[in-house]
Write a structure and sequence with these properties.
One of its GO terms (molecular function) is protein serine/threonine kinase activity. By secondary structure, the chain is of the alpha+beta class. It folds into two domains: about 10-90, 2-Layer Sandwich (Phosphorylase Kinase, domain 1); about 100-280, Transferase(Phosphotransferase), domain 1, CATH 1.10.510. The protein is built from nine helices and ten strands. The strands form three sheets. A six-stranded antiparallel beta sheet has the order 1-2-3-4-6-5, covered by helices on one side. Strands 7-8 form a two-stranded antiparallel sheet. Strands 9-10 form a two-stranded antiparallel ribbon. A hairpin with a 2-residue loop joins strand 1 (about 10) and strand 2 (about 15-25). Helix 1 runs antiparallel to helix 4 and helix 3 (about 110-130) runs antiparallel to helix 6.
Length: about 280
């Protein structure tokens, strides 16, 4: 079964599946309406290439339960999950404004005055997940930062798919770009994660958040990926391009913080989300 199976106009559990909202390595997201209550949510639908073993299915369910336990204003809320045959589906909060990746592609890079407040919120959510939830995302990227209205009506960014990278890997499900035992998205992966994906530490999420901010400010990934070259070889060997060399209008102090956060040596970057958040506030 294709990972991106079209399930529109079907019912999954108590949900009526509507229009497609987006798709990526981790499945396809649809608008959905609860048949009885009329609640509007997003359904992420995942298919697997083969029937998982009971142990694999149990590991997947365990990781999803961890994701559902996270409750923070800057983490997309997962409410429940279900399964029909080889299809898993996750019921999630719907963020009406789409992803940060879509916003940058459609309108161009954001000014620092708009980008930094969004990422201060993301880093708050990341800090909560790392400390209170004990979870490492391992696939933070602009596609997984969703935009919606906050409690005060201003636009905020929320982290989606927390825990799914590990869930897919441990359950053997299809979905992520893989090289051997590695999974992730090359443009937003630190070298340290490539070396040791299985035991990734919170630092890898901090790096990926900085890479996402870099993209938001410049419209480019930190590393250049030459056509025809293995992207993972680029991650292993190439260094990030300094923000100032991208030609975007970014304040010097902010560019310095982002460049430091993207250092391939974890000892020279920012070990925690709190440290990067504080540095951005001071920039």
């Amino acid at each position: 079964m294709d990972t991106h199976t079209d399930v529109r106009r079907r019912r999954l559990g108590d949900w009526i599946v509507g229009q497609e909202l987006g798709r990526g390595g981790m499945g396809t997201v649809y608008a959905a309406v609860h048949e009885e209550s009329g609640r509007h949510r997003a359904l992420k639908v995942i298919s697997c290439d083969a029937e998982p073993s009971p142990e694999e299915a149990a590991r997947f369910d365990r990781e999803i339960r961890i994701g559902m336990s996270l409750r923070h204003p800057h983490v997309v809320r997962m409410e429940s999950s279900g399964r029909e045959g080889r299809l898993w589906y996750l019921v999630m909060e719907r963020c009406e404004a789409g992803s940060l990746a879509d916003r940058v592609r459609e309108r161009g890079p954001l000014p620092a005055s708009r980008a930094v407040p969004l990422f201060l919120g993301v880093l708050d959510g990341l800090s909560y997940a790392h400390t209170a939830g004990g979870a490492v995302h391992r696939d933070i990227k602009p596609q997984n930062l969703l935009l919606t209205a906050g409690e005060d009506g201003t636009e905020v960014a929320k982290i989606a798919d927390f825990g799914l990278a590990k869930a897919y890997e441990t359950a053997g499900l299809s979905g992520l770009t893989r090289t051997g035992g590695f999974a992730g998205t090359a443009g937003f992966v630190p070298r340290a994660q490539l070396i040791d994906f299985k035991y990734a530490k919170p630092y890898v999420d901090v790096w990926a958040t900085a890479a996402s901010l870099y993209f938001t400010l410049t419209g480019r990934t930190p590393r250049d990926f030459p056509p025809g070259r293995d992207p993972w070889l680029t991650v292993a060997r190439a260094s990030p391009v300094p923000v100032a060399e991208r030609g975007a209008t970014v304040p010097r102090a902010l560019a310095a913080v982002v460049d430091q956060a993207l250092d391939d040596d974890p000892a020279r970057g920012f070990a925690t989300a709190d440290r990067l958040r504080d540095a951005l506030r001071d920039a």
